[in-house]
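Methods, example record. To illustrate the input and output format used throughout this study, we show the complete record for 6-phosphogluconolactonase. The sequence lines were provided to the predictor; the line carrying structure tokens was produced by it.
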Amino acid sequence: MKVLIGGYTKKTSKGIYELLFTGENNDARLGKAENIISVGGPTYFQKDGDLVFTINNAGDEGGISVFKLSDHGSNEVDRYLTPGASPAYVGIDREKKLIYTANYHTAVLSVFHYSESGKLDLVDQVTHKAESLGPRPEQTDGPHPHFFDETPAGNLVSCDLGNDTVDFYRLEDNKLKHLAQYKNEAGFGSRHIVFSKDGNYFYVVGELSSKINVVKFNENTWEFESIATYKTIPEDFTEHNGAAALYISKDGKYIYNSNRGHNSITVFKINDDHTLSLVQRVSTFGDFPRDFNWDISQKYVVAANQNTDNATLYLRNGGNGTLTPIQKDIAVPEGTRVLFTK
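The corresponding predicted structure is encoded as:
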């Protein structure tokens, strides 16, 4: 097993790094980070077999690139770049061979199809408008979609930090059709979303508010009901914080989010009525943890700290959801994205 970590390339990072995972339980360890893909600003990426679909910040242009991995390294097989900023998020459907990107700066949502060899074809794009911009400084300059991926029923969903909205789409005849919109409270800063195991609830995290909103919804009638909202950081924490990544365990029992500023991962238990109960806040032992992720068994978790160029490895207790740090100060530069791989 290996872990891939990529991020910004503003200081010393050259792109995406691979760290070998060895051992098990408390003796599990990550090895030295080795650069396997040289690319500008791979702040988010996905993988399908030996293909890596990554954000590419190429100076005056931005977009995505596709790299093919081999025993001899990696080579770029295709790219789609446009003038301006690169996207912030990459989603994937490996069965349909579709890639979804959300561009925080240009407000463009894109759908690509890719071939077995990794060649990209743009399917469709939509641009979010300034419909309901929030009051915070980060919102007044326009819409900022930060997530674009699939729903339990196979529709698409975007979280827009600028508009405080969750927007739902369907890809119909290779065209994106807007279906419905859920509005978070003003200043929420909608960033990432996960869905309950039964598909009847979603949990959306607000970057600017450091909150998680629990929403009951019907993906046939598009009715929404806000159930509850929870702070991801302590009430008495007054310094700046930006809530970031959001994950739900495959058994549907626990939700995890990262906090950039409080520098922690918050663990919530999902109750039978889909409300949340705080289980744990654990340090990431570094500064500015944008992303974290787990292996396929969800027994091990790795968090990357962007500003302190380090990562932390945890052992996850599947019974009570808690995380126990087992390796700290793993050197990796400017990490913002974590992905376990074989």
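Annotations derived from this record:
The chain has a mean pLDDT of 97.
The two ends are 4 Å apart (CA to CA).
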